[in-house]
Write a structure and sequence with these properties.
The chain is α+β, with helices and mostly antiparallel strands. 27% of the residues lie in helices and 52% in strands. It is built from three helices and seven strands, in the order H-H-E-E-H-E-E-E-E-E. Strands 1, 2, 3, 4, 5, 6 and 7 form a seven-stranded mixed beta sheet that branches. A hairpin with a 2-residue loop joins strand 6 and strand 7. The longest helix is centred in the first third of the chain and has 20 residues.
Length: 128
Amino acid sequence: MNHNSEDEQALRRIQHDWADARLKRDSSFPRQIEADDFTVVWFDGRIVNKEEDVRSYESDDVTFTEFNIGDLQVRFYGDTAIVVAQGSLKAHAKNQDLSGKYVWTDTFVKQDGEWKAVASQVTPVLKK
């Protein structure tokens, strides 16, 4: 598959829209962008499927107040793209501050002309 800057820009836009959806608690975005068999490995080690992830956008369990994306790299392998990014966020669970720096890897597959997220992994950056 021939990838151009249009594919890269689409994936960059998805990353920013995904972050905005978290801030706005908009569960329609993950419903649209995540494949039916999507899984995410959260920063605490839990493996979550699409249904659970979508519910997390609507939940009051965690409140995101800031989500900044820094360095973002996109690589293509045929119909598959890997996005590696880092950023910072401000978020609070009921009794826990989740704010800090994070890195993540998102795997996308182009299906019927659209990029769908099939897997994600989120890791906190440890303070030294």
